[in-house]
Amino acid sequence: MAHDEPVLLLASQSPRRRQLLDQIGAPHRVLAPDPQEDAEALEAVLDGEAPVEYVQRVTQRKLDAAVQRLSRQRESNRFFLLCADTTVALHGTIYGKPRDAADAARMLGTLAGATHQVLTAIAIQADDGHRRHALSQSSVTFAALSLSEIERYVDSGEPLGKAGAYAVQGRAAAFITRIEGSYSGIMGLPLHETAALLRTAGYRW
Predict the structure, then answer these.
(1) Could you give the residue ranges of the DSSP H alpha helices within 91-143?
(2) φ and ψ at 95, to 5 degrees?
(3) What is the dihedral of CA 25, 171, 189, 2, to 10 degrees?
């Protein structure tokens, strides 16, 4: 890519977010974190923090870290830097990534038979320093699940590393009875909001 052409940099190693950008034909590169960066510290929940406040704050912190990273390894004078964070919430309780299989089973047991919210915040910073933000809020309803269904799903390994201990585009689709909102937002990158922010920022593809 020519040095003066803008590049879209995705500050995430999520293959799902890459897949979603590919889906709308948006060329991009991954701005991978430096080895010394502590992603878990960025995603720590503060006492009494509401889910919306949490996901927006974490996204801003991720963008701050990505801007610092880019300043150390910039490959283009013109860029659009994209960050996102997704969390699951039920009755105001945040369900992040499970610590282990037992934690995943606990989360799934709580979500079973209930309707929860999936919040994905996105933030874009252009090379002029201006930031733009958006928030996608969706609802997902799970059927009642037996212990054996939860155990089989946890044994598949899919829940680990996923907010709320499930992947909507994976095997957990068999548990979902209803979705309201953005399917791509539940996956981790709401495409309508992302495309709108990029267009407003001046990125064309």
Answers:
(1) 101-111
(2) -115, 100
(3) -40
Could you tell me whether strands 115-126 and 93-95 are parallel, antiparallel, or unpaired per DSSP bridges?
unpaired
Identity (one letter) of the amino acid at 39?
A
DSSP state of 65: H
pTM: 0.92
Selected catalytic residue, list 85, 100, 103, 155 = 85
Whether residue 16 contacts residue 190, with contact meaning beta carbons closer than 8 Å, is answered with: no
> What does 54-110 look like in DSSP terms, one character per residue?
HHHHHHHHHHHHHHHHHHHH---SSEEEEEEEEEEEETTEEE-S-SSHHHHHHHHHH
The model's pLDDT over 119-131, given as tens digits with 9 standing for 90+, comes to: 999 999 999 999 9
Q: What is the C-alpha separation between 30 and 200, in angstroms, rounded?
A: 21
Look up 127 and say whether it is catalytic.
no
Please give the Cα distance from 2 to 141 (Å, whole number). 47
Write out pLDDT tens, residues 58-107: 999 999 999 999 888 765 678 999 999 999 999 999 999 999 999 999 99
Q: Which residues contact 48 (CB under 8 A, 6 or more apart)?
A: none
- Predicted pLDDT of residue 32: 86
Tell me which amino acid residue 85 is.
D
